[in-house]
């Protein structure tokens, strides 16, 4: 399992080591045995650039996920499978390959809106990104509700294991 945390923003100090431990625990809870996962913490300006360049959406957003396993799987199969079959295939393989971009500025804004901490928002965005990598979709209202329930369940489990507030306390070796 390989998880790389890249802190590319300066708004908040981040304990990258703890965030990596949280991501590892999340993957373990989800029974993911193999993973190549990049988690990039970025500022609103960089997130807006990524959003506009790759998704053709204007402005910043909270989290963007790039699924590299999906591209490899698409290239190796002769026909398109349904989303349900794709999720089952991934569950059977227990492999994850992708990159998650988390906007720290958005986490701070959303924390105020939802009366939570920006640190728990960061953890939520990581959970959300991993669920997307597992094939969950939040575009349709039914799928959105199902994904949100799973996101909340996983975040509660992580909150029981870790002090999410400590994400915002940089360790001596991490920034």
Structural summary, described in words:
By secondary structure, the chain is α/β, with parallel strands linked by helices. The chain has one domain: 3-Layer(aba) Sandwich (Collagenase (Catalytic Domain)). It has 7 helices and 4 strands; from the N terminus they run βαβαβααβααα. It has helices at residues 16-29, 44-55, 68-76, 83-93, 104-114, 118-133, 141-161; strands at 2-7, 34-42, 63-67, 95-103. It has a 4-stranded mixed sheet. Helix 6 (118-133) crosses helix 7 (141-161). The longest helix is centred in the C-terminal third of the chain and has 21 residues, at 141-161. It starts with a strand and ends in a 14-residue tail after the last helix.
Furnish the topology, listing elements before pairings.
Blueprint: E1 2-7, H1 16-29, E2 34-42, H2 44-55, E3 63-67, H3 68-76, H4 83-93, E4 95-103, H5 104-114, H6 118-133, H7 141-161
Parallel strand pairs: 1-2, 2-4
Antiparallel strand pairs: 3-4
